[in-house]
């Protein structure tokens, strides 16, 4: 059956109190943004549901795919709307089941009666629909728990919504409803997952990436652009700030003993990220660090790195195992991008024996061998800014196909 409407159920935001409407508006805006290139799609929000309408069936199919990635949605269903009277509901339900394989299938009618003025009570409507449909579709077998076909009937003031499919949403809070942060995005597996998890908690993200040509290639930079663009599909636009880091890394190699170069590299990255964060008005920095995973992520290393900023540093992966992180990366579609064999600026200058317990005072002492201040200012001022997702160009010949 061709559907033209989708009924969207709110996730965690349904538990919000007086500021609930703020979250609902943000979710509506995020959905409208990701559907912007679908010209007939319209979105209408209500207190306990949201509805998406489209004139074109193909646009509904595309919308069903995109909604699965939008934070703040518990579940959604392709639905048929009809007049909220018994005869019309029966006819619509019959039409829906006529397009399905019903022989030998288990079946149940579920009714939600949001409009209390509807003349039949919930159980009465369930009995009426069951009594009407079972003789028409004798292959159906009634089953109350875990039926193969669930006919969902939602009675509302503007009509009755009927559906037979419930698709799980991404859950969480609408991206952008809980503040603004800056994600330190490398080309690896971890940082995109960290960004995804913080967006799920309602953060809007900018991302910062450190690029060191000619030691890092354009392919390594493009990989990060694709990761950032993938993150932008979860509800909000993303700005990517690309920092040219070559001169700073070369200065580090000349000023700091080999074992401490990784610690200093991370400290200066954090300083630069904090400067960019301040300029864009973000409130926190997000990283993909996991405790003990590599030398720069031991407790001593993290302490030395954190010393350069008083800004909150959010580390959502801090207690996660690598296999768990990989599992999330595969689920969200970043893993295959991340494993492309193009090195980032951290891996190309990795010392043979990096310090795992760096002393902060010693790191500060060696960093005084070079004046990094002007280099940091230059890197921040000269950064490239890319808006994601990229605007899709229309095919001039599409009308001829």
TrEMBL record:
Pathway: Cofactor biosynthesis; thiamine diphosphate biosynthesis. It comes from Bhargavaea beijingensis. HAMAP family: ThiI (MF_00021). This is Probable tRNA sulfurtransferase. Pfam families: ThiI, ThiI_fer, THUMP. It is found in: Cytoplasm. Keywords: ATP-binding, Cytoplasm, Nucleotide-binding, RNA-binding, Thiamine biosynthesis, Transferase, tRNA-binding. ATP binds at residues 184-185, 209-210, 266, 288, 297. Its EC number is 2.8.1.4. SUPFAM superfamilies: Adenine nucleotide alpha hydrolases-like (SSF52402), THUMP domain-like (SSF143437). Belongs to the ThiI family.
